[in-house]
Amino acid sequence: MLGSILDLHGLFPPIPTPFDETGAIDSAALAEHIRFLSAFDLSGYVVLGSNGEAVHLSNDERDRLVKMARALVPKDRLLIVGTGCPSTRQTIETSKQAASLGADAVLVLPPHYYRGRMTMEALAAHFHAVADAIDIPVIIYNMPACTGMDLDTVTIAAIAEHANIIGLKDSGGNIAKLGVLHQMLGDGFQILAGSASFLLPALSVGAVGGVLALVNIAPAQCLSIQENVQEGNWDRAREIQVQLIEANTAVTSRWGVAGLKAAMQMMGLPSSFVRAPLLDLREPGLGQVKQILKKSNIL
Amino acid sequence: MLGSILDLHGLFPPIPTPFDETGAIDSAALAEHIRFLSAFDLSGYVVLGSNGEAVHLSNDERDRLVKMARALVPKDRLLIVGTGCPSTRQTIETSKQAASLGADAVLVLPPHYYRGRMTMEALAAHFHAVADAIDIPVIIYNMPACTGMDLDTVTIAAIAEHANIIGLKDSGGNIAKLGVLHQMLGDGFQILAGSASFLLPALSVGAVGGVLALVNIAPAQCLSIQENVQEGNWDRAREIQVQLIEANTAVTSRWGVAGLKAAMQMMGLPSSFVRAPLLDLREPGLGQVKQILKKSNIL
Amino acid sequence: MLGSILDLHGLFPPIPTPFDETGAIDSAALAEHIRFLSAFDLSGYVVLGSNGEAVHLSNDERDRLVKMARALVPKDRLLIVGTGCPSTRQTIETSKQAASLGADAVLVLPPHYYRGRMTMEALAAHFHAVADAIDIPVIIYNMPACTGMDLDTVTIAAIAEHANIIGLKDSGGNIAKLGVLHQMLGDGFQILAGSASFLLPALSVGAVGGVLALVNIAPAQCLSIQENVQEGNWDRAREIQVQLIEANTAVTSRWGVAGLKAAMQMMGLPSSFVRAPLLDLREPGLGQVKQILKKSNIL
Amino acid sequence: MLGSILDLHGLFPPIPTPFDETGAIDSAALAEHIRFLSAFDLSGYVVLGSNGEAVHLSNDERDRLVKMARALVPKDRLLIVGTGCPSTRQTIETSKQAASLGADAVLVLPPHYYRGRMTMEALAAHFHAVADAIDIPVIIYNMPACTGMDLDTVTIAAIAEHANIIGLKDSGGNIAKLGVLHQMLGDGFQILAGSASFLLPALSVGAVGGVLALVNIAPAQCLSIQENVQEGNWDRAREIQVQLIEANTAVTSRWGVAGLKAAMQMMGLPSSFVRAPLLDLREPGLGQVKQILKKSNIL
């Protein structure tokens, strides 16, 4: 269907960057986590996204992380790297570096510091300059909770005119907007849900998969939504979807990366710290996360 | 499943109040429109909602409209009447009046003028006082685009504790929130999508139907989404859903009631005017609506 | 300077409507409150504004309140009546009624229920229709906290083109916007601060006075800001301004009308209840208001 | 009054970083601009703020810019350097570097990428860690238009508890909030207006000066507001204030850094380009800026 375009169907975990107690990247924890996930039929992995605390890493650390990830991710799975920076020149440089280190695609957050000036024209020029500069595809990353800027359909369509811009990860959750985009841009523009809270709703308006924090701790349940849809088991897909929302909220909007890292520890997955100004989760939050994971049959 | 609770499964058109060129209610147009809709398997009708321009009607006009609607709506279909007013006393009075005129349920918009003071406690007290005062059920009406206030799950759950408050019409479109509500409150609390743009997504997290402006002009297409879901035809349901979003946007968020009334006229349905400060749709809007209706196979 | 235009220089209390324990309007309390205020050099009185809980009153109650106020307010002081309603026809009718009952000007809140459709064109048409229909002047009432809609300078200027629209009460508090408006529209368009929290700042960009909830309980202090400015005592004006902000916040954004009514009771002014869904202030709020009033030298 | 605390009274231009046509920092232009400004009685200079496009610079470029600025700024004038970064560790490192290169104070933007988790506790810990790590003072930089986060009074007061955090630059423009802060924190906490649009209003509630983009092109007019206030000429101060708002808006919220750089060129000051994704100003914007500068008696 997509010809030579990179196929984004399926689910992708946005890997949290593990930090040890000294604040350094914990490469052993990263390896263990990706090993755990490789037992599931995931389509690939995202590193250096919001869950990866990319904004908290130095340039050197980002490069090291991409190298580690490329060595750990099997060749038949995609490695997608977050490369959005405030300036076009930095974003191009970072994207080139990711490509040279083996990324299959880059996930580009729109620049947002001067959001009052980020017109459609400015954003299209930015994304097109990045897409021109590299020969791996670009995925747009709409993340209003972090950027304070919710890309509208007209702007996304203008950005998507470039042949090397192949899709969108949307964490905004305006489902009707995703449906409009799918109708406007067709199957050649691949939409990924940015949150497990609306995976099935997004699939119901044409999304092809998702980049979901929850996949890090509940890959089987997330995958079963998409599988049940493919097998026509709507009612079962709906049951699973509804059961996952509270747990997903706990590790995303409610407690964020700290919640996700705490949940990983509770499940016996590699544990790690967040970097300041983020604060590690404490009681009573820890107890609440545990209770939610149990109720959701994840723990 | 719901025992003695009023069953809200299915689709409900929010009827626009027809005004003639003098600004008076056009009772013949109302009759003709409901006659048109009665050929479809709708579960009932909503009057005096946002599409009904309830805020533009005098108390006398509201009463007249409910009487007309009750005479026109078959007894085996529900008549739901919007009765939310700024004060609790007015809302109670209006709701009692609706009940006495034959309404099967009331749809209550939260008071929102003093939104900074509309705490969970204030809103629960308001809704409970209304639910206590009448013996027909109450449906909560979450409509952030008009109220500037998006009821959160904890507030809705607090309101829903009253046995006579049986459901929610949600026009906010935060699908994940609907899923959380369904998980929190179970099947006894009936969720209705407030917009055709997210009917299938809402059904995918537990909604039982919808109050959809688009049903006024495209009842067959809207009904076919729910039917295809029930028959397990996910792919077909998704196709129809995606095709309807643009047309729905035209008669809701983009051009509002004026867009809906213009679309009705284009389709040979009873035409009517809006009341100021709303402005009737003009060119180029009219041409755009026509084009969208054709593209969506409604016209 | 203003020729024949009604002069709005000075301060105006927005009178809270007093309700007795049965919920009825307490006319004795109203009389007592206006008598208390008449000892100060106020320019007039506003009734049926946000502090007057106009949205909680029936049409009959509104008429009665205007009649009472007209009888109580000395002829050499202005009586300004809030008359904004959701529809243009209701606003015209209410404004005509206010004029016939002796109002000197009307204060018109923009219609806001269909705020997505309240374009500059729709709002200008609304205000111009009202200004055409009556022969007393119209004052625009910008109140984003209640309407969810912050009128911009271009829209206000378009509305202000009508000769019978003479000013603006602004409760939004964007001071730079007031300065732009003053520069755009000149001395013929009279700007009133809508909150004592920014009276001096508003005067510093060209406002001529204010409609201030705090005047109800602290008329002398509020007046002294404007007096000190006129006498060139900038430092003293600034000291008083800064001292009043916390008390003003208590009776406006923090606890609203209930806070104002509680403060009036504490000061020995006529006490009264709010109407539901507003809730009367309770502890610990009552104690906090008392403490703030003492600290601010009001109590 | 402030004892040993660095005195922030007066006006500070936030210097735009000049880029030549190749995108490199233009050190000659920087020198020329600071030479122009040194003829006026400014209290100091801010570099690497929002107007300085700090987010578009590499670490090396930032260091070079601070060195140049320190060499250019007379010893009896303050050099304030923007050092806010997304992580606490980067902010500390950058602040230490600025101190070692001769900065008199650092201006710290709150981290905002994970704004949903930036609780009062997280922000206070961040600012206190920075203030502990350096021995030059810290100024808080509230800039909602860029961060999507408007620090409230309680949060600012919690941050300000640290003895080495001496003030606030506020670009939000909520004047009442500045008044509350001044009353809460007293003269020891120095408030600077972040925009010339509300310099006089801010002074009217206790601010001691401003960091104003407009000072770059209109230092004499900006200084005259503060001078007239000190001399008791309220009416003249008000006239100048009102005249400057439109020009200030042109070089801040309306056209941003590109507008400021265009205005500098029109005035014969060193001209330079912005870095992408920002776009240099073009027609018709250029003509509009010119007209506004003339109307405001700046050009």
What does this structure look like?
- The structure is a homotetramer of 299-residue chains.
- Chain A is of the alpha/beta class and 299 residues long.
- Chain A has helices at 27-37, 59-72, 88-100, 120-133, 144-147, 153-159, 175-185, 199-203, 219-230, 234-254, 256-266, 285-295; strands at 10-12, 44-47, 78-82, 105-108, 138-142, 165-170, 190-193, 209-211.
- Chain A has an eight-stranded parallel β-sheet.
- In chain A, β2 (44-47), α2 (59-72) and β3 form a beta-alpha-beta unit.
- In chain A, α3 (88-100) packs parallel to α4 (120-133).
- The N and C termini of chain A lie far apart (38 Å).
- Chains in contact: A-B, A-D, B-C, C-D.
- The interface between A and D is large, with 39 and 39 residues.
Summarize the structure.
The structure is a homotetramer of 299-residue chains. The first copy, chain A, has 299 residues and is of the alpha/beta class.
